[in-house]
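for the writeup, i need someone to sanity check this before i put it in the appendix. the sequnce is what the collaborator sent (i think, or maybe the updated version? ugh). structure was predicted straight from it, no edits. if anything looks off just tell me and ill rerun, i have time this weekend
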Amino acid sequence: MTADGLMTWHGVPVLLCGGDGRKLSGGDTALDLIGDAMGCHAEVVAVPVERVADEFFALRSGVAGDVVQKFVNYRIRLVIVGDIASRVAGSDALRDFVRESNRGTWTWFVADRAELEERLARG
C-alpha cells in the first residue's frame, strides 16, 4: 500500500495513506493496511476517500462491515478522509452508519486532515 508516511498528532501515531494504490475493498486490503500500521506502530490508519472502493459505501455488499471488523479485531482505528456528502445523501443507511461510527472510537469519517487532528486532540 502506498502511504504518505507516519505522523504523530497529540501523541497518536497515524499512518497517512496516499491517494494512489490499491483500493480498500475488503478484508484482504484491510489486512494489508493493518500490517503496514503494525509495522510502523501506528494506532490509526487514515485512508483518503479516493482509495476506498465504491462497494464499501454500498452497505448491502458487506465490504464495510468486513473492513471495519478487521480493524476492530486488531485494535487499530480506521479513518476515512474526504468528502462523502453525495454518497451519504443517497443512502439513509450509509448516513446512519457514518453518524454512529463517528460517535465511537474505532471508525471515523472526517472531511480532511485538520478534522482528524481535531478529533485526536479530543481523545
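The CA atoms of residues 24 and 52 lie 5 Å apart. Helices lie at 27-39, 54-57, 63-73, 85-89, 92-103, 113-121.
thx in advance!!
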